[in-house]
Each structure stands twice: as C-alpha cells, then as structure tokens.
C-alpha cells in the first residue's frame, strides 16, 4: 500500500509509523551526531524550530546531515510531523530536499535531511557574488520542484506546499535549489481542487484570498513563488517590519508593471542581464503576483519563460 493512500488522522498514525520504521533513527545517534544539539551546530532558526548540522553514520558511511528539531510548543504536533515525514519519503526530485530519517522519542520530533552546503536562499538574497544566471537557475529549480509537486503523473495526488519562502529554499554546494519544509502541506487529489483550511503561511508570502476565504489551490503556491522571484531580483526580504514598503510583493509588482525596475533591482545586477531577459522575468513576476488566484500562470508557462530568460540572459 502506498503512503499517499493514507489520510493522516489519529486512526492510522501508528500504521504510518510502522511503514516508515526503516527511516527511524535513535535519539542517541542524533545526540552524538550534533554534539548533544550544541548551539555551535545551529545553522538556522525558523518558526518550526532550530536546525542543527552534524555527521551521522548511515550504511557504514559518515554523511553530513541537518537535524530539524521541531518545536512542539508552537503548535506542531503528530499530524504535521507525520505529514512531512511521509511526504518526504514518498517524493523524489532533484530540487526537493532528501530525507535521511526521523526520530520520535522522549517527546522529541526530529526530521533529518541531507546537508545543503550553502544554507537557505534568504541568507544570499543580497549576496553580490550570486550572479543573475545563478539566480535564474535557482528560480528554475524551485519552479521544477513545484511542477513535480503539483502535477507529477507518477502519483495519484498533487501536493500544495503552503509555506514557500526564501527560508524554505535551500542551496547545495552547486547553488542548486532544494525545496524543504512540508509539515503544513496538503494533498490534492484533483487538479484545481479547492481545499478549505486554516490560513497558514509566512508573513509576506501569502495571497490575500487565502486569508479571506481559507480556500487553497496549487495556484496559491504560485503566488508565494512570485514573492520569492521578487526577493531574488531585489535582494530584499518579503517582509521588513517598521518600513514604509514593508511588504515587498505589492511594491515590486507595481514597479514591474510600470517597467520601472531600476528602483527595486539589487545594485549591480542589471549590468549582468539583457533587456529581453529582464522583460521575460518581469512578465513572470507580474503574472505570479496577480491578485486573482485563477489568473496565476500554469507552472509550465513559468518554467518555459524562465528558461527563455536564462537563454538570452
């Protein structure tokens, strides 16, 4: 029986744990791998808890790992934990983070994934050494991950990630994008199915329609991706507290629509791109940030346009 045939509720959580037994890692092994979760090994903090780097012996080989220690005090429980573990064990794509295992022991809930050497995209938005071509390749990696999540024909369901942000996009040693964090994801069994749920998202990345109605489709991820595209272009975060234009999305969309990108682009970046590449990129951002969810572009259109932007960059 496939993992996706389960609905994650209290009646079958035990069954899922049994199916995933091969991925269980003893807590003592993770304590050793992270030097007892030493603060020096923390590589990032997020709303879901701290992540620790470490080295773990698996199949006779020492590998670099990240142990994400979920903070259950902030509302993360069995449902979210098992959602992420089951999805990561079922989903396989070059632009998704790879699961190593998990630990559920002594009130600990830890998800272990492969270590991505360059950390989260959020740490590199304003990096002057990250070129326009590298930024486009990162955009394409995320877009291809979304295409796989939303439409892959090899599964009987799609996945709405719900919390796409520059913090949940990791970068490996080759600056290849790896989408992570699936604890709030929803399985979508019919294309364009509207899922009514509690609005959950990251400030600055969630479209207003979700907050108003709670109605969610795969196109909601497209809006969040449009915000990430704006971050990559401007070098600034989606939300900056106590700033006049603290929400990036509407500010960026206005400038893209007015063809006035000089005021928002990261200094030095425009010298690296052709005008045609800029125009294609601008078109994608405007479509993704459309206020009407039904007008958000299909991800295949996004991929094709970004590929074109890269070819003529």
From TrEMBL:
**Keywords, in A-Z order:** Transferase
Name assigned to this protein = Protein kinase domain-containing protein
InterPro entries this protein is in?
A: ANXUR1/2-like, Kinase-like_dom_sf, Prot_kinase_dom, Ser-Thr/Tyr_kinase_cat_dom
Whether Chloroplast counts among this entry's keywords is no
Signal sequence segment: none
Q: Which GO terms describe its cellular component?
A: plasma membrane
Residue ranges of the Protein kinase domain?
A: 37-313
The molecular function GO annotations come to:
ATP binding; protein kinase activity; transmembrane receptor protein tyrosine kinase activity
């Amino acid at each position: 029986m496939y993992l996706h045939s389960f609905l994650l509720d209290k009646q079958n959580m035990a069954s899922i744990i049994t199916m995933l037994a091969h991925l269980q890692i003893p807590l003592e092994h993770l304590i050793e791998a992270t030097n007892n979760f030493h603060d020096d090994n923390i590589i990032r903090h997020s709303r879901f808890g701290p992540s620790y780097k470490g080295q773990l012996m698996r199949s006779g080989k020492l590998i670099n790992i990240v142990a994400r220690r979920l903070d259950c005090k902030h509302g993360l429980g069995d449902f979210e934990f098992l959602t992420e573990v089951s999805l990561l064990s079922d989903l396989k794509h070059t632009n998704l983070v790879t699961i190593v295992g998990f630990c559920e022991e002594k009130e600990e809930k830890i998800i272990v994934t492969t270590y991505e050497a360059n950390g989260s995209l959020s740490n590199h938005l304003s990096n002057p050494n990250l070129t326009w071509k590298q930024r486009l390749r990162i955009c394409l990696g995320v877009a291809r991950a979304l295409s796989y999540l939303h439409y892959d024909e090899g599964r009987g369901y799609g996945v709405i990630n719900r919390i796409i942000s520059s913090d949940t996009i990791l970068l490996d040693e080759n600056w290849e994008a790896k989408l992570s964090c699936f604890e709030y994801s929803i399985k979508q069994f019919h294309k364009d199915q509207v899922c009514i749920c509690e609005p959950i998202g990251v400030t600055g990345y969630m479209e207003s329609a979700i907050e108003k109605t709670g109605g969610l489709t795969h196109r909601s991820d497209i809006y969040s991706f449009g915000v990430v595209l704006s971050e990559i272009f401007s070098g600034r975060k989606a939300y900056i507290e106590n700033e006049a234009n603290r929400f990036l999305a509407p500010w960026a969309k206005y400038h893209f629509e007015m063809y006035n990108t000089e005021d928002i682009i990261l200094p030095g970046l425009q010298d690296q791109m052709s005008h045609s590449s800029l125009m294609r990129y601008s078109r994608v951002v405007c479509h993704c940030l459309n206020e009407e969810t039904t007008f958000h572009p299909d991800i295949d259109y996004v991929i094709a346009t970004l590929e074109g932007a890269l070819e003529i960059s």
